[in-house]
Amino acid sequence: TDTRGTSDPAAYDAYLRGKFFLAKRNAGALDSAINYFQSAIAKDPGFARAFAGLAQTYVVYRFYTSSNMDSVGRIAASRALAIDSTVADAHIALAYSASNAGRFAEADRHFDAAERLDPNNFLLYLWRSSSYQRRALPERVMADLQKAVALDPLSVVAAGNLGGEYVNQRKFAESRRQLRNALKIDSTSWPGTWSFLTAAYIWSGFPDSAVHAAERALQIGDRSPQRIRGAIMAYAAAGRWEDVDRMRARLGKDKDLGEVYEYLLVTGQHEPILRVLETGTGRSINAYRGPYCHPSQDRISREPRYVAAMQKHGLPVCPLQSPWPFPERNDGRK
To answer: Which of 182, 203, 241, 323 is in the most buried spot, having the most CB atoms within 10 Å?
Structure first.
């Protein structure tokens, strides 16, 4: 091997194509990334960076499809490190998977290792910011997102995530501006910008614009439960309850309620959520709730049982409150 990690030009070409499609972040592109990384590995089974790229694709896969491939991703990352312990991308994949499961100490160990090995790695800062989001560390979130944007100014994912963090901080005008800038980079490949814009429009009082943004996100990411949940919130904000029910029917019956979390929030069905919060572990709850301080949690976070559950697990309750943008359901159904 050479400094590229392989002496096989065809393997390196396949690896670069995999990285290209991984950056696009939609279901079809991630499928292509997997194929290219697997092709690179087939050409050179000792190509650690290809295993790491495959790992990164697998651990992000569940946010764009209905399939959780984290366990396969961890295997690929471990294989990369067994071949070459200096591959930062493998540590980043392991860190991201651990963070999404609420295992933050494990995540930090791998993020720290990646930063020592490759301090200018764009994905390190992008994915670590999401870990900090879950832990109520907004200053660290912003620092990492700004670093990611500086390292790759043409990344729609970094630009979009920065706009999404403005939603969490209730800076809705700044969010809309930032997300419109992200759409100028790429409006057709990544559904995330449209999803963040959906939330920005909902809490800015523009439900019809939120519906448009949610439907654009679904066009790009039609296999993603995340986009369906975003559409549920947009339709609810617009009072379009038949469309809410239509979207709800597309979600499975998730035993831990994660699939229907937003549906329960916008329809005011707090009891099943509170039961999960009261009986779960701190780690599972932090993974379940998603980004700290997202305004979708404002109404339930005022309930004494919610506050007590958070105190029990040592988790923070967001101090911010925004006006609730969802009308009460008036057709007698839930």
So the answer is: 182
